Amino acid sequence: MTEKLQFDQIYHIYNRGNNRENLFLGKENYLYFLKLFSQHIAPVVIVYAYCLLPNHFHFLLRLKSKAEILDSTNLT
């Protein structure tokens, strides 16, 4: 069962390619992944550490509090 993420909690997020196949084939793949991460995920988390490897990745992050997210998006 999938649980909802909770505000102000720390998570280890990871993923690996099917059959251990590479997710990142070259520098441009890493850069594209980080660009999307910075656009869509970074605004709502604090990143403590990350590691991108050819066939998997790891992120240690904290989901910001609801107030932090609202403050950073100017929706208050």
Automatic annotation (TrEMBL):
GO MF, one annotated term: DNA binding
Residues making up the signal peptide according to the UniProt record: none
Keywords: Membrane, Transmembrane, Transmembrane helix
TM region(s), chain numbering: 30-53
Coiled coil (UniProt feature): none
GO biological process, one term: DNA transposition
InterPro entries to which the protein is assigned, alphabetical: Transposase_17_sf (IPR036515)
Protein name: Transposase IS200-like domain-containing protein
Record lineage: unclassified sequences, metagenomes, ecological metagenomes
